[in-house]
Amino acid sequence: MQEEISNQLKQIQEQVETLKEKVRFLEDSKKDQLSIAIVSGDMDKILAAMVISLAAAAMDTKVRLFFSFWSLSALRDNKKKAINKDLISRMFGLILPKGRNKLKLSNMNMGGMGPMMIKHLMKKQCVLSLDQMFKEAGDLGIEITICEMSMNLMGFKKEEMIDYPQLRYAGAATFVSEAGESSIQLFI
Amino acid sequence: MTHEELKTVQVTKSVDARGTACPGPLLEAKKAIGTIKSGDIMEVLSADEGTKVDIPKWCTKQGNEYLGTIEESGFFKIYLKKK
Fold first, then answer.
1. What pLDDT score was predicted for residue A49?
2. Is the Cβ pair B54, A136 closer than 8 Å?
């Protein structure tokens, strides 16, 4: 009799443990957190990503940005120089925009006229510039992760990336695991 | 709150965010809210139409109480009470 009861108790305990585990998983998957995978390197798309991120951060939502492929151009520092690059990397480096202020528009680029006009309009209508947005992002603790694999693929080096307080290097698994916990996930 | 009540309300902090467009006013509001006490009333001045809709949403998320908006010529006065 007693053995039966203790067996049942044990079973119940095990079930409670399993439930606890499941609840923890559910709670983690609904964090007040925004994850964005930013792949595009167009000025308008980087702007959109930054505006959304800043709005989220202003609402105390944790923001984690994962930059890969073309978007990495936006994180290049035009005052920094990387040495010891091979020929293809040097070529990529020359062709791709050197920094967030050299980005092209996805539409109406018109050989650089478009971005000039947009920057003029942004100033006129008091929209924060990309420089100001990155500064605010840093102050608000927005995290930027650089996809190391695509950085190597594009021939960029760590030495030429911007100084940013919350900058780190990681791989796709980091994005997947963190985005899995975020209640908002975007791809730009 | 009615417009008449809003006009006479005791404002502890006034944030002039008319020099910045979305999401600037939100960032200004976030910075300013940290400087006032619970129960204090803050007003945000914004020339950005979107802010009028955004601030109430921001209040709901943060738990602050949105009191109302007064439209002036060319800008808005948005009132909220810190939780």
1. 97
2. no
Residue in A59, A60, A125 nearest the CB of B21: A125
The ipTM, to two decimals, is 0.81
Chain A residues with beta carbon closer than 8 angstroms to that of B21: 125-128
Contact B79, B51 (CB under 8 A): no
Nearest to A107 by CA among A54, A40, A187: A40
- Rounded mean pLDDT of B12-16? 91
Residue B39: phi, psi to the nearest 5? 95, -15
**Å between A51 CA and nearest CA of chain B:** 6
Residue A114, pLDDT score: 93
Report the 10 Å Cβ neighbour count for B33.
21
Helix (H) or strand (E) holding B42: strand B41-46
Each residue's pLDDT tens digit, A58-69: 999 999 999 999
| B59 catalytic per annotation | no
On the question of pLDDT at A28 being above 90, the answer is no
User: What single DSSP character describes residue A106?
Assistant: S
What is the per-residue pLDDT for B82? 92
- Looking at the domain A31-187, which fold is it? Hypothetical Protein Ychn; Chain: A, (3.40.1260)
The minimal CB distance from A59 to the residues B20, B21, B61 is found for B61
Residue in this structure with the two tokens 């006032």, named with its chain if needed: B36
Q: Which domains does chain B have, with CATH numbers?
A: 3-81 (3.30.110.40)
